[in-house]
Amino acid sequence: MHPFYPLLRAPNCEGITILHNYAPNNWEIRKNFDKYITLTWSDGAKWNTKVIGTLAKNKSFTIREKDISFLPKKTLVLSSLSINKPPLQSIILPDNVDMQTNLPEWRASIGLENKLGGSTSFQGEAFAFPPNGSLLSFAPFLQHGNDLCSYLIFINIEKSPLFRNTSLFFLNGRGDKIIAKKPIISNHLNVIKLDDLGYDPKDLIILFTENIVGIPLFMTAYKKGKELSLEHTHPPASFAIHGDRWGLHKKIKKIWTEKFNRIKP
Amino acid sequence: MFKTIYKKLKRGLWTFKQPLSAKPKRLNNPASDLFIWRNSSKWKTYFDLYDIGSFYSEVDSKREVNAKIVFYNQSGIKINEHILNLIPNQNKCVDISSLIKGEKDSFGTFAVFHSNVPDIFIEHKSYLTERGFVSYKYNKKQIRHYVHGNSDAISISDNSTYLLGVSSILKRKFKLQFRLENTEKYEFILINYTNKLQEVILTFIDEEKNKNINVKKYSINPNGCCVCDASFSYIGKFRLVISSNLVMARPFVFRYGIKKNFFDVFHG
Question: Is any Cβ of chain A less than 8 angstroms from the Cβ of B145?
């Protein structure tokens, strides 16, 4: 599978993604090439791709929101690097197996900036998620305080370009109460304000979905962006090392699905 | 076909019997990443702590559970430990700086070991591990900046900790896929999660000319860490390559704006 690097979006912030044309290690890929810089987005019926330039070996390239002003607002834009020119339109997300690494993945710097001075980023990548998968995620990130506001940025990418409407549930830490149900759309960057949901500082946020998988990013801003913080949650599989981690992953998903089914509206 | 076999053989030199970390000694031994603490008038460190084991229970347990936090200084010497009781399904944002009094203007590593290891982990021959999240407040800023751990580093048995990280026979390069700029300042913190003294070489390379502009060398004791800053004057964009025998020399990056006055932290 081919890694994509989304351009983020959040209130009072500008998304910034910096692509890097050098491998993260010296042993998985020994020979590098100049690459096409591409932007890919769905219009709900097909995937569209535009080549916006080429990136020489050992160079980096910055993409900002102004570079995608030709697209409708709220479009999820996926940047990538490719040796081959991808198709301009396709009914399945373009895939390319060239120049991949695994340890670690070939990453980009994905972040947010604000004119008041805030800047934050993480090293990341995204792949297409299976449709109808479910998500369980535990998040401790909610920060409370004067002039602080927090958002969840939920990014979903699927191979199909269709926009599916579904729901993201916010549960309490015990999993016996639904705190909120929020509409989300596949192949979108969904932004949800967290401050009004009623979680208190001791609460863990439990995210649960029945038929969509995504990357949950949590952003906190002070005074509309003077300071910014951004981090992603781990999947429950990260609570275990070695052995049958995926067996454990299935078990925890089963436990929380049963909890959810007892309180499902 | 021959090309594929050749590629696999070449890759095998680096990956054959090369795990990222060793298995803990016993199935009920919890594991932890090694996290960074920083403590000074400018730094406050926090850790979000919750009982991971309770997520695997269908019903709430009445059993008292806790987590042991073990602190090391930058040289890898144990300086302190604390046991904190946990309430199932609740988050506790621990003020790490308050637990390491007496270590002013300093930094080091810490690990978090959970007492509650559900039987299901043992049934799956797996080990419960703490991966984070640690957060920092810098220079009286208002928000905590989060970063998760990035190494399955350490375990504990009979109150004695032991490292899980392994070394590589071949020298490896970790190339940080991040553009460094002279409008920002950086500190790179590297952890030694192996039982051997590790030497790391940080090479800063100009993006335009692809030439080395600065090289820094450090030795890191087991359990310890080093801070490397990019405090050389250079106008332009550059990148960082870390050479060492660590399988994954992924640094924690502390990033500061010069003109914009921001702070950010992430891992490579």
Answer: yes
Beta bridge partners of B129: B31
Q: CA B49, CA B46: separation in Å to the nearest integer? A: 9
Which residue of B126, B131, B142 is in closest CB contact with A222? B142
Q: pLDDT tens across A68-121, in order?
A: 999 988 899 999 999 989 899 999 999 876 777 877 889 999 999 998 989 999
Mean pLDDT taken over chain B: 92
pLDDT tens digit string along B168-194? 888 999 999 999 999 999 999 999 999
Are A157 and A119 in contact by the 8 Å Cβ rule? The answer is no
Are the Cβ atoms of B177 and A121 closer than 8 angstroms? no
Q: Which among B88, B121, B255 has CB closest to A240?
A: B121
A104 touches chain B (CB under 8 A): yes
Q: Using 50, 70 and 90 to split pLDDT, how confident is the model at A226?
A: confident
ipTM here: 0.94
DSSP codes joined into one string, B213-261? EEEEEEEE-TT-EEEEE--S---SEEEEEEEEEES--PPEEEEEESSS-
From chain B, the residues in CB contact with A200 under 8 A are none
Q: How many CA atoms are closer than 13 Å to the CA of A227, on its beta-carbon side?
A: 23
The three-state DSSP-derived secondary structure of chain A is: CCCEEECCCCCCCEEEEEEECCCCECCCCCCCCCEEEEEEEECCCCEEEEEEEEECCCCEEEEEHHHHCCCCCCCCCEEEEECCCCCCEECCCCCCCCCCCECCECCEEEEEECCCCCEEEEEECECCECCCCCEEEEECCCCCCCCEEEEEEEECCECCCCCCEEEEEEECCCCCCEEEEEEEECCCEEEEECHHHCCCCCECEEEEECCCCCEEEEEEEECCCCEEEEEECCCHHHHEECCCHHHHHHHHHHHHHHHHHHHCC
Q: Do the Cβ atoms of B262 and A227 come within 8 Å?
A: yes
Put simply, the chain B residues between 99 and 118 with a CB less than 8 A from any chain A CB are: none
Does A239 touch chain B if contact means CB atoms closer than 8 Å? yes
Q: Searching chain A, which residue's CA lies closest to the CA of residue B242?
A: A25
Asked if A235 is an interface residue toward chain B (Cβ–Cβ < 8 A), one would say no
